Amino acid sequence: LDNGRSAMLGTEFQDMLRCIRCGACMNHCPVYAAVGGHAYGWVYPGPMGSVLTPTLIGVEKAGHLPNASTFCGKCEAVCPMRIPLPKMMRHYRKQEYDQGLSQGMTRFGIAAWSVVARRPKLYRLLTGLMARALRNLGIVEGRLTSLPFAGGWTSVRDLPAPEGRTFHALYKERRS
User: Which of 20, 82, 121, 139 has minimal CB crowding within 10 Å?
Assistant: First the structure.
C-alpha cells in the first residue's frame, strides 16, 4: 500500500484483519439487501467491502463504497469479531470529503442540509412541503419512478411516495 493509504493501517485496519468472512454483516445490511453484491464493483461486497476496498485500492477509486451505508450499525452488532465497520466507513467518508473527491452536488447538498438541520422551524417547514410535493408526484401509482436528484436510484427502482405527512406532524398529532 502506498503512503496515501497508510494512515488507515492503524488499529482500524488491524480490526479488518480479524474478519472471518462469515457474511453476517452482509446478511443484515439493508443497503446490501437492496443493491446486491455486484453493485460494489470489486472482490469484496457488503459493509466489509466498503471498508476493505478503499483500504486496498484507495479512496480515490473506491470512495463511493463507504457512502453506500445507512449507518444503522447492524453490521457491527452482528459481527462475531466486533469489527467497528460504521466507524471505519465514517473515516473514509471524511477522508473523501477532506480530499475534495466527492462530487460538487454532494458537497452542496451536505452544506445545504447542515444549514436546514440547525434550524428546527425551517426544517419542519421544508420537510412538510417536500413530503406533500413528493406525495403529489406519486399520487397516481403510489410510487415515484424518477426524481431529479435521485436519478441513479430511481433509474433502476421505484421509490414509494410519502403519505404527505412528516414524522414530526404524526408525532405531534398522536401526542395530543
Answer: 121
pLDDT (tens digit, 9 = 90+) per residue, 124-165? 999 999 888 888 888 677 888 888 777 777 777 788 888 878
Answer for the pair 159, 150: CB distance below 8 angstroms, yes or no.
Answer: yes
C-alpha closest to that of 88 among 68, 64, 107, 66: 66
Tell me if 67 sits within 8 A of 76, measured CB to CB: no
User: Measured over all CA atoms, what is the biggest interatomic distance in the chain, rounded to whole angstroms?
Assistant: 59
Return all residues near 1 (Cβ < 8 A) that are at least 6 apart: 9, 55, 56
CA dist 118 and 124 (Å) reads 11
In angstroms, the CA 128 to CA 120 distance is 12
C-alpha cell at 100: 475534495
